[in-house]
């Protein structure tokens, strides 16, 4: 078994997988379920000075992912302070308390939640090109409490610019990304928008935004020296491994916990462990950030016709169906053959193969 522990500030995570601030930790009961499901920490649903009035309906599974109009907690701060945080603290896991949204609100709340928190995660409203709200929120939190302060960033910004601004303001870490949007989907039966928000707009999360989140994490790691916690479309161990290869210290999951329940935390951790063992890595530090030096810095035309692992081929023809260059075919033994003269080395067949019969060829 590989060593999955992560040293994060003054606490140690048994593995890098935890919830994101959202419905999976909407209260103390949900936090207890997450602990039973194997999470390494508790990240509470963001609170503000007033309870949120959440539109109904506000969540939907889509063919392309997941959409929501979730806001901050539907419970006010008094209920959290008097009933939820004390119980969550007794669970014995590191607690990262989610706070939002303005500097004034964060300043007021930070002092109140400090006894229950090992760190704070700040959420600001979706931003344009001005990092001032992030800067002001971080400074307000740092002035109010002596705790590590992380700030969550949305993808619709200049990642490097905002990351550097947050670090300069005193942030101890970044969490990225938030869900992407606004987006829209329509119910075919009624013709109405699926979400109950103004204009019917929502925010996209889940598998569909993973490549966006991975790029954002990759950019943030390049830009700053503070720890990065990755979130956005992480639903399996290989997603978490990719985020750590990009340089993330740990990962958060939300949509997959909503859809599949709290056991996903231990499931993803086991899958990370299996990957490390199968690839002869002893711990997460051996893979953390390795993609930073392996991703092309400019256009790369070096890949060649994919390698074939013939014994793995099942003859399913998936790679043949999707080859627009007509380079793939089956031989008389129903095994894949690639015509090197026709192959454009686009790589699509490798990513579509479900049986590890094809590999990218960088020779």
TrEMBL record:
Pathway the protein acts in: Pyrimidine metabolism; UMP biosynthesis via de novo pathway; orotate from (S)-dihydroorotate (NAD(+) route): step 1/1
Annotated keywords: Flavoprotein, FMN, Oxidoreductase, Pyrimidine biosynthesis
Residue ranges of the TM segments: none
InterPro entries: 4Fe4S_Fe-S-bd, Aldolase_TIM, DHO_dehydrogenase, Dihydro_DH_chainA_dom2, Dihydroorotate_DH_cat
PROSITE patterns in the record: 4FE4S_FER_2
GO cellular component assignments: cytoplasm
EC number: 1.3.1.14
Top-tier EC class: oxidoreductase
GO biological process, one term: 'de novo' pyrimidine nucleobase biosynthetic process
Family from the record: Belongs to the dihydropyrimidine dehydrogenase family.
Cofactors required: FMN
The keyword Metal-binding belongs to this UniProt entry's keyword annotation: no
Lineage start: Bacteria, Bacillati, Bacillota, Clostridia, Halanaerobiales
Free-text function comment from the UniProt entry: Catalyzes the conversion of dihydroorotate to orotate with NAD(+) as electron acceptor.
Single GO term (MF): dihydroorotate dehydrogenase (NAD+) activity
Gene3D superfamilies according to UniProt: 3.30.70.20, Aldolase class I, Dihydroorotate Dehydrogenase A, chain A, domain 2
Protein name: Dihydroorotate dehydrogenase B (NAD(+)), catalytic subunit
The keyword Protein biosynthesis is annotated on this UniProt entry: no
Catalytic activity: (S)-dihydroorotate + NAD(+) = orotate + NADH + H(+)
4Fe-4S ferredoxin-type domain boundaries: 304-333, 334-363
């Amino acid at each position: 078994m590989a060593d999955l522990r992560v040293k994060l500030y003054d606490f140690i995570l048994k593995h890098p997988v935890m919830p994101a601030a959202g419905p999976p930790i909407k209260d103390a009961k949900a936090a207890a379920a997450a602990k039973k499901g194997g999470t390494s920490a508790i990240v509470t649903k963001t609170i503000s000075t007033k309870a949120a009035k959440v539109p109904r309906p506000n969540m939907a599974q889509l063919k392309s992912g997941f959409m929501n109009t979730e806001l901050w907690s539907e419970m006010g701060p008094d209920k959290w302070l008097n009933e939820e945080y004390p119980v969550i603290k007794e669970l014995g896991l590191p607690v990262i308390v989610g706070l939002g949204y303005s500097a004034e609100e964060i300043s007021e709340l930070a002092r109140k939640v400090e006894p229950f928190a090992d760190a704070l995660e700040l959420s600001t409203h979706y931003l344009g090109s001005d990092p001032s709200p992030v800067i002001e929120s971080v400074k307000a939190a740092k002035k109010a409490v002596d705790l590590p302060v992380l700030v969550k960033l949305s993808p619709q910004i200049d990642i490097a610019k905002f990351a550097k601004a947050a670090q300069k303001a005193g942030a101890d870490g970044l969490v990225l990304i938030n869900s992407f949007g606004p987006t829209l989907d329509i119910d075919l039966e009624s013709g109405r928008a699926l979400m109950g928000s103004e204009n019917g707009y929502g925010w996209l999360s889940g598998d569909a935004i993973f490549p966006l989140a991975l790029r954002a994490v990759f950019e943030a790691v390049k830009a700053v020296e503070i720890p990065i916690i990755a979130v956005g479309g992480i639903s399996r161990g290989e997603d978490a491994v990719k985020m750590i290869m990009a340089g993330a210290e740990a990962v958060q999951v939300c949509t997959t916990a909503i859809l599949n329940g709290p056991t996903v935390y231990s499931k993803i951790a086991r899958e990370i462990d299996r990957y490390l063992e199968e690839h002869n890595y002893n711990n997460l530090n051996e893979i953390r950030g390795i993609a930073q030096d392996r991703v092309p810095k400019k256009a790369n035309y070096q890949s060649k016709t994919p390698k074939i692992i013939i014994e793995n081929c099942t003859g399913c023809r998936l790679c043949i169906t999707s080859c627009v260059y007509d380079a793939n075919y089956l031989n008389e033994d129903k095994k894949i053959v690639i015509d090197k003269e026709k192959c454009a080395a686009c790589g699509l067949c490798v990513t579509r193969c479900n049986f590890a019969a094809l590999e990218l060829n960088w020779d």
